[in-house]
Fold this protein.
Amino acid sequence: MTQSAQPPYNVCLIGLGRHGLKQLHRLAENPAQWRLAAVVDRSVAAYARFQYHFHSLRVPFYRDAVEAIRSEPIDVIIISTTAPSHVPIAESLIRGGYEGGLLIEKPISDSIARAEDLQHLIEEAAWPGRVAVDFNRRCSELYRRVKSVHKSGECGAIIRLEFNRPCKLSMVGMHFIDLANWIIGSRPIEVSGRLDMTSIVDHRGAVFYDPPGWLQVRYASGAIFEMNTMPDAPPESLGMTVWFEQGKARINNDESLAVIETPAGEDRVEVTDENRRYRWIESALASVVEASAGCEICPLPEAILALEVVAAVHHSNSMDGAIATLPLPQEVRNRRLRIA
């Protein structure tokens, strides 16, 4: 099996759920960049849904990921299943001889310890492939601009970063936990938080528990990150706000506009593309295949850190909102969260 050296890149998608189908639709619209080489799912019903949308493309279907990599030329694989299966699938691919790119959906796992097992396997096997986790908002021009302002030092250090939006803490909220870690660029050391008592059941099923909540994270740099994903978040506060020593950045809730106030004046960055969310997935995927593609993708250790913050919120909640110190103790790292 040989890998293509240039576009269109051969893509395999594992997981034909709602999110996976959205990703396939986006990639199928750009055949000059992406060739759908294979899809994998254990469910025949999922395959039927896939065929309804993509039968004309005649994409090979497999029920086993290792069989797919041994049968088709594949440059990059998207693991778009639920959190408990991410690590086992990635491990099976690595042990099965796959050496290409892996883009794994977030969260990386439902357990910190299981995610660390994957990291250890990659290190011990000296695996030559490239792995990233799909925190694709890092590829958005808006958040990249805020990151670059902080990195330049023109506004000084970050004092506080705040994000408010009614959503599930893990499913959407973890994107912004990763963004806070990435933009602030310092190690989180303390986490406190509370979770709502109820978790709305969606298409993933009642086995998953992913309620809204609020959290506060303190970083080694002294910066504070606060997030409120409860339904009663004030409408005027929705979106992300970053307070620097000498300035402020504000990204609105629909992620179409960033207003950045610096000592040199005001900078406005506007995104009008209606499909920008799924252009982010393309940017992230391209950066797994080509390190020079321009998007700073989320490496595995940073994805594990975002998961640790979420686990710390659950741990803090079990202690009535008391502070959880990072790194978390091993018994908490071993605990399996009911997140998707």
About this structure: Residues 9-136 form a domain with the Rossmann fold fold (CATH 3.40.50.720).
